Structure formats: C-alpha cells, structure tokens
Amino acid sequence: LCKKTGLRFMGCAEIVMPENYLAMFSVPNEEQSKRIIAKKDEHIKSLGEMIKSNIPLPEHKTNISGKFMSSVINPVFYALCVNDKKFDVDNEKCISCGKCARECPLSNITITNGKPTWNGNCTHCMACITICPTEAIEYGEKSKGKPRYRCPL
Length: 153
Known about the structure:
By secondary structure, the protein is of the alpha+beta class. It has helices at residues 30-52, 64-81, 99-103, 127-131, and strands at 87-89, 109-112, 115-118, 137-139. The strands form two sheets. A two-stranded antiparallel ribbon has the order 1-4. A two-stranded antiparallel sheet has the order 2-3.
C-alpha cells in the first residue's frame, strides 16, 4: 500500500524475451525466439489473471550478486564499453533505406552519402542492427553470423 496515494501495488513481474544484445551474448534463432515468445504469452495471461483476481504478484527478491551488478558493475560497464565505435556498415549490403536512423531512439544515426554514420551517443539498444533489412550493420566481429531478433509490433 502506498502511503502517499493510498493505492495498493500489485508488484512487478519479469517477462523473459528473446535476447537481442548481439554485442555480448548468444541470441536465439527464429524458432527459439518463437518458443520464448509463446512462453511469454502464457506467462502474461497468468499474471493478468492474478491482477484481475486482486492477487499480489510474487515478490522478486534481488540477491547480493544482483545488487552488486546493478550498483557497481553496470555503471562501470556502461561508462567503458557502451559506445558506437564498433558499429560498421557493409556498403555492398546497405540499400540506403534509412531505417536505422529513423529507428534510433537517441537520434544518434545520420545518413551521410546514403550510408549510416553513428554520432557518439549510443545506448546499445541494437535497434539499428535488428531493423536493417539486409543485415548490413554489424557491431565489429561480435554480431557477425548471429541471428537478428526483432520484437514484432
């Protein structure tokens, strides 16, 4: 119960989605992504039923490792590793569609001479890589050959 508003909080829940952080992790192929999405749908329905029935969601406890990762490791990783220096475009694959620039949530990509240019303000969301219809964008060698997962709208 929130003392300020008097509203009862139901809690929050984790929804597992397919990994798309190609810069560091393995990403699922299309079939694996579909299985993960199917599980997500079932989980969301059960959470919805709990909320509808006024049942609080299960409490998610953060362990000491999670707290350390969030408070110490993540800020250091973000400061040292999250940048756009390794993004590259294969000029032969790029069709100059501009989807990468339009999709960037930070407006970090501009189209110069028909090709994307990153401008130093990247959050590593990987939207540019996953939206590219020809897979012309890579994050150095880290993303080469990996499937691209794009959440369907």
